[in-house]
């Protein structure tokens, strides 16, 4: 198994830097062809969403589509795939950032009844209580 950093995944998805995109694509494609599995951590997924939103100005629909494809890619293994699917669903349907939903889900997984926040976008989420 080989870990992937956010910048490798960004280049693989966006193909915006020809030299880096070619290297990332070659490594992933060759690895996949030989049966290699690539590990993606939870923080990489949160960083990926942030980069796609802020650096590439992708809208939520485009980001949800990209995450859905990543999570369905058999060559990718995740730190907590079930948790990521839950966060993706909440991000798709609700307000708040992907990382907000991730924070709430991690709290719930740790036994928290809710997570306190000042972020009013999360007032409808049962995972949060807005102060």
Could you characterize the architecture of this molecule?
With 131 residues, the chain is mainly alpha-helical. It starts with a strand and ends with a strand. It has a single domain, classed as Rossmann fold. The model has no long low-confidence stretch (mean pLDDT 95). 58% of the residues lie in helices and 11% in strands. The radius of gyration is 16 Å and the shape is globular. The longest helix is centred in the N-terminal third of the chain and has 16 residues. A three-stranded parallel sheet has the order 1-2-3. Strands 4-5 form a two-stranded parallel ribbon.
Give the SSE map.
Blueprint: E1 2-3, H1 6-14, H2 18-33, E2 38-40, H3 42-54, H4 60-72, E3 76-78, H5 81-93, H6 98-109, E4 115-117, E5 128-130
Parallel strand pairs: 1-2, 2-3, 4-5
- Regarding quaternary structure, what we see is single chain
Q: For the report, how would you describe the main beta sheet? A: 3 strands, parallel
CATH topology: Rossmann fold
Strand content: 5-15%
Head-to-tail CA distance between termini: 43 Å
Highest-level CATH class:
Alpha Beta
Number of helices: 6
- Order of the strands making up the biggest sheet: 1-2-3
Shape: globular
Strand tally: 5
Q: Cα-atom Rg, whole angstroms?
A: 16 Å
CATH architecture: 3-Layer(aba) Sandwich
Count of folded domains: 1
Could you state the order of secondary-structure elements as H and E? EHHEHHEHHEE
